Amino acid sequence: MKRLVWLCVGLLGLTGAATPSTPSVPKASLTRLTSGGCCSGTTWSPDSRALLYIDRPPGAAKAAIYSVPAAGSAAPSVRLSRIAFYAPDLTYAGIPKGNTMLVERLSDRKQWTLPTQGGQLLWGPGGQVAYTVSAQSGNYDRRIGRVYTTALGNTPRAVSTVYGGGAVAWLDANALLVSGKASALVRNRQLFTLDTRTGVRHVLVTALNLRGVQPSPDGRWVAYAITFDRVDRNGMFVQPTGGGAARKLAWFGSYQWRDAGHLLYIPLTMNAATHIVWQYDLNSNRSRPLLDLGTKVQSDQWQVSPDGAKVAFRRAGDSNLYVAKLP
Question: What's the CA dihedral at 192, 197, 200, 203 to 10 degrees?
Fold first, then answer.
């Protein structure tokens, strides 16, 4: 499931600030999917045909994961009766059990127990998972975190140790993106790639605060923000994970990858009437306004579909889910 990212300032500002509308920007045709306000944990189905969210409508015995067609062609219905941490392709479910995580393969109900101690699972290729076991108390910036990987059914193996951080995402079957400090006493964090077979690290960037780290769908690029550092170092960046200089971007706001070559974002701009989705192109290193939503997104709750063709968002004002096709 695609991760959505709001920078610390953007989190505070989106519903009250937006990019000024431009006459040349296409206006979105919105499809409303829910009524009465709803939902948390919204994400796209793997085939981009439906939105999934957690809900407990009036009269329901318990909360469940509901599905509603992105075309708005049917009412919401229960898709998964159990609340769990599902893999993006909905092939596995992670169910917390005390200090462990019970992982179940949905096709045959086969189960494995991992000693995650509260660590979040990162679903990787080929039935692999990664997680970080961190100390549960003390200054977060100085807490030790050990990163583990395993193929389900094998014994988890520690592959890295950092302080105040942990594994961020899989880049491919043999590489993780990890963020954290090299020791408890150093000032800056590192963002580095880690070969899970050899333990070899490649440091991409070192900074006081790294925020919104988000690899591209093919793992070849990463987007991130540096904040609360020196003025000349702060900002938005994209950088190749295989080596190469970072590009500093000329905007600031909420962003998500559309595909391996395009980053969508909603700039943080004060006092505009609507939110406009922009697209940054890696090849041309240029941005252009893509779609005027004609309204505002509530609290950073927007998601690009896995096929990159649509955007869903929770609308500020009525708290319902809407979908718009992207040009």
Answer: -10
